[in-house]
Write a structure and sequence with these properties.
The protein has 92 residues and is mainly α. The protein is built from two helices and no strands. It has one domain (12-77).
Length: 92
Amino acid sequence: MASRKKEKKPNILVVLSVVIFLLFVTVMLGQLFLQLKDKQQEIENVKSEISELEQKNRDLKYKLDNKEQYLEQKAREKGYVNPGADVYKEIS
C-alpha cells in the first residue's frame, strides 16, 4: 500500500499569486475600458465640431460665390445704380 499516489495540495503561494495577478489584470482592463469610453466620447465631440465647421464653410463659400449679387443688392438699397442703367422713380 505504499504505492498509493500522494495527493498534492496546491501551494498556497502559487494560488495567492494567481489570484493577485487576476485582480491586477481585472483592474487594468477596467481602467482601459474607462479610457476607451472617454476617447470614444472625445471622438464624437470632434465629429460634431467637424460637422458644424463644414456647414459654416459651406455657408461662407456660398456667400463668396454670390458676393457680386450681395454687393449689388446692398448698393441698390443705398440708391446706387450701374453705369448706363436707366433710373425710374415712382411718383405717387
